[in-house]
Amino acid sequence: MTIQVNLKVRKGDFDLHAEFQVPGTGVTAVFGRSGCGKSTLLRVIAGLEEPLQGGLVSVNGVTWCAQDHSVPVHQRRVGYVFQEPGLFPHLSVQGNLEFALKRRRPGEGAADLDEVVPLLGLEHLLLRRPATLSGGEKQRVAIGRALLSAPALLLMDEPLAALDARSKDEILPFIDRLCSAARMPVLYVSHSTDEVARLADQLIFMEQGRVLAHGPLAEVLARVDSPIARSDEAFSVLHCGIAELEGPCHLSILRTASGDSIYVPRLPLGEQRTLIRLRINARDVSLCSQRPVGSSILNILRARVTQVSDADGKGQQLVQLRLADSEEILLARISEYSCRQLEITEEMEIFCQIKAVALLS
Fold it and tell me: Which domains does the chain have, with CATH numbers?
């Protein structure tokens, strides 16, 4: 099952050329700066805009657009969530949700109200009108309506962009839960590294109308030649198992694929997840040629240097590391002076001190 796209669009002076193939399951984040063509890409996939002749859009074996034909918008089975929720003001929350149920065709298996309402935490909102809802609540209803339309593909175009920080914090856990439970593939547009790190399985990186990289999230993030890695926001995503929920001093202990321990603030005692996703910023990783002793930094990982690259031309180096006995990749951003002092070279065994870890999901 795959999503295949190969299309060109011209809008005035702007040219979009997007070519990629990603799995037809899970969440694929479309990431890039404002104006790089992310929203245009989604609109063409949905059929709201036409590509230049010869474009291709295929979702899990069903061709929506090819050189000789284009499936109309209403037949593409797309769920679309925009920045603004676009709810019907004269209908209650339940009425907005039921509107989607009435419009889907018979026989299209999909989620029903009894599944979507608790998934998005809408139970106490069903009788209220949109005007009485917060921004985050409105967007949860809009997402629920899109799910109930029985989509073959869910498109989410920066669904948190119009929300304030508090509303974003309110809705992110629901989107996280949705993405974990979704039966259909999700294309999620964002220019927020926090959202990408938390939600994405795959990543499409765009710049100036072009797809510069695509693939599994961890692999794209680990490329030292990518604009993300060369920015101040360079980070890695690790997946860890739970070793001890009730560790010492209100900590939980996670276990990396290499068998090393990572200490994090204590997780809830009822934690059901078997894997915990972590974000580690490259600037929060320091390197040691020998295992440190007498340090307040608890999280120390064994690794091997796989690549060293100039980060910014201003005395910073980006070091790509593979964790011991695993395939997981970590990035460290250190000074060129430190790199020389430690005599860091490829294949060198090294110890990584992790100064800060962010729990994502």
Answer: 2-228 (3.40.50.300), 235-358 (2.40.50.100)
